[in-house]
Design goal:
Helix content of chain B: 25-40%
CATH topology of chain A: ABC transporter involved in vitamin B12 uptake, BtuC
Distance between the termini of chain A: 40 Å
Shape of chain A: globular
CATH class of chain A: Mainly Alpha
Number of strands of chain B: 10
Largest sheet of chain B: 6 strands, mixed
Number of helices of chain A: 11
Oligomer: heterodimer
Largest sheet of chain A: 2 strands, antiparallel
Strand content of chain B: 25-35%
CATH topology of one domain in chain B: Rossmann fold
Radius of gyration of chain B: 17 Å
Distance between the termini of chain B: 29 Å
Strand order of the largest sheet of chain A: 1-2
CATH class of one domain in chain B: Alpha Beta
Largest interface: A-B, 20 and 27 residues
Number of helices of chain B: 11
Strand content of chain A: under 5%
Shape of chain B: globular
Order of helices and strands of chain B: EEEHEEHEHHHHHEHEHEEHH
CATH architecture of one domain in chain B: 3-Layer(aba) Sandwich
Strand order of the largest sheet of chain B: 6-7-8-3-9-10
CATH architecture of chain A: Orthogonal Bundle
Order of helices and strands of chain A: HHHHEEHHHHHHH
Chain lengths: 292, 242
């Protein structure tokens, strides 16, 4: 295998990993703060993808520009889901909360999937922008503009999220609630508001990933579960307390999948991801990027 | 002295067990009031109920004319009623400075946070030195100082402390009690739960004794220090030194 094709494989792994990272950060945020696993996270990715698709196909809005619509729309969807569904679960404690969050979010997965199928049909949709297939060529490595676009936006979003969480009061309130919700209440934080905003923020991150999926692969009502699974693998790699660590972990998974796809064969790509998932669980259950 | 905190006929449960049975007590403005009693008497439940972390079964908690028991915890903090919880409960993964900033989360405290931060750093110079350090990497005594510092950042009118001396070396306990006294001199009303009964009674103007969820005794700190039953139960038979 030539140097160029290895470099090409790595670069494409990086591109895919950026999408994994963004999808996983949303799931990690909700998991870290609300302490519940939102199985329907992938469905939020799917819905975000559809909003972007319709903005492109009916209004002709470039998918990268349409993020300005997609993010607020899914933010509102997130708020609504929190108010109607998740706020009832977040109050529960311990095992009851885990069980109920799994059941309810799995149910929501089915509802959203069927809703999407009814509204949008089961056809696979993709966005063909005018600059699709065009890109930079550096030392024989092709970098399509769409892929460069997704990776750079993913990086900017990660940096922005880092700034928001560590340098603004609402962001610190989210981190504090994730650490100890009672101590957060005693500091004067309205934790139910934090839960609502965090869930909406998680949905917004999912919608960014969804837009990238639509640009890169295409979407159908059933893609959600795949993205929940990828995001789940990534947050276990990162360590379940680590929100921002999900981004490098996503990149890692993307690169590992791409490399194993090239060397072992595309059929085993997913398997390698899952093997790493198991190895991390066995050898370093606190995750790769979690602080001890 | 005006009536400040009034707890009236409070009943509360801890899990399935009723922990407080018709507890009534008051803390006047400017006082240091201690609450002593054996483990499991309901002391922590009482403080948590006042702070809004626990819903009472019945009864009221009044702060002046405000009914605290109807408010969520964060609104109680806005009223200047701030609890330093048992076991400190710091945001361990965040820095000392971030912990302090979060203490000033409510709007009233946030507007004054730079000024308050200076005061807290004067009281606890170690916190200024370690402001970039993660809270869970500090020693127990430093963590307790941070917990109190975080509470002070919220500009308390009533500061409630739950077992601040727990697990700390005697010298650090002394230091913390001095700070509590100093805060009181500066006008902060103190409601203190302590297992260290002697030191608490020496510090407090008045005290209540809570046993099995009921107030079984009250008096000034000095009275209780001399009381034979109190000495037997809480001061370990030792004759008072004075």
């Amino acid at each position: 295998m030539s140097i160029e094709s290895i470099a090409q494989t790595l670069v494409f792994g990086l591109f895919v990993g950026g999408i994994y990272g963004i999808a996983a950060m949303g799931l990690a945020l909700v998991f870290g703060v609300l302490k519940m696993l939102n199985i329907a996270h992938g469905e939020l990715v799917m819905l975000g993808g559809y909003v972007s698709f319709w903005a492109f196909s009916t209004l002709g809005i470039d998918p990268f520009v349409s993020l300005a619509i997609v993010i607020p729309v899914l933010f509102v969807v997130g708020l609504a889901l929190d108010r109607t569904v998740y706020r009832h679960i977040v109050r529960l404690l311990g095992e009851e909360k885990i069980k109920n969050s799994l059941l309810v979010s799995f149910g929501l997965t089915l509802v959203l999937q069927n809703l999407a199928q009814w509204l949008f049909t089961a056809d696979e949709r993709a966005i063909q922008v005018s600059y699709a297939g065009v890109g930079l060529n550096l030392f024989g490595v092709t970098m399509p503009y769409t892929r460069l676009g997704t990776l750079s936006i993913a990086l900017v979003v990660t940096l922005a999220l880092n700034y928001f969480l560590h340098h603004t009061y609402p962001g610190k309130a989210i981190l504090a609630t994730a650490e100890d919700f009672e101590a957060a209440e005693l500091a004067g934080i309205n934790i139910h508001r934090v839960y609502m905003m965090t869930f909406a923020l998680g949905a917004s991150l999912a919608s960014i990933a969804g837009t990238f999926v639509t640009v890169t692969y295409g979407i159908s009502p059933s893609v959600g579960i795949l993205w929940t699974l990828k995001a789940l693998i990534v947050i276990v790699l990162a360590g379940t307390g680590s929100i921002l660590g999900a981004f490098p972990a996503g990149i890692l998974l993307g690169v590992v999948e791409a490399v194993s796809g090239a060397f072992i064969g595309a059929t085993y790509r997913e398997v390698v991801g899952l093997v790493i998932f198991l190895l991390v669980l066995i050898l370093r259950p606190q995750g790769l990027f979690a602080r001890s | 002295m005006t009536k400040f905190l009034g707890i009236n006929h409070l009943n509360a449960s801890y899990g399935d067990i009723q922990a407080l049975w018709g507890v009534s007590l008051k803390v006047d403005e400017g006082e240091i009031v201690a609450l002593i009693g054996p483990n499991g008497a309901g002391k922590t439940t009482l403080l948590r109920t006042v702070a809004g972390l626990h819903q009472p079964l019945s009864g009221t908690v009044q702060l002046g004319n405000t009914a605290l028991h109807t408010l969520p915890a964060y609104r109680i903090v806005e009223q200047g009623v701030i609890l330093v919880p048992e076991g400190r409960r710091l945001f361990g993964g965040l820095t000392v400075l971030e912990n302090l900033e979060l203490g000033a989360y409510s709007q009233r405290a946030r507007d004054a946070r730079f000024k308050t931060l200076k005061h807290v750093f004067e009281l606890f110079p170690i916190l200024a030195e370690r402001q970039k350090q993660r809270a869970n990497t500090m020693s127990g005594g430093q963590q307790q100082m941070l917990a109190i510092g975080r509470a002070l950042m919220g500009l308390p009118r009533l500061l409630m402390l739950d077992e601040p001396s727990l697990g700390l070396a005697p010298m650090i306990v002394q230091n913390i009690f001095e700070i509590v006294k100093l805060m009181n001199d500066r006008g902060v009303t103190i409601f203190l739960v302590e297992q260290n009964a002697r030191q608490a009674l020496e510090l407090a103007h008045r005290a209540y004794i809570l046993e099995q969820g009921k107030v079984v005794g009250t008096g000034t700190g000095r009275e209780l220090l001399r009381n034979n039953e109190v000495r037997k139960a809480y001061l370990g038979f030792a004759p008072t030194a004075r």
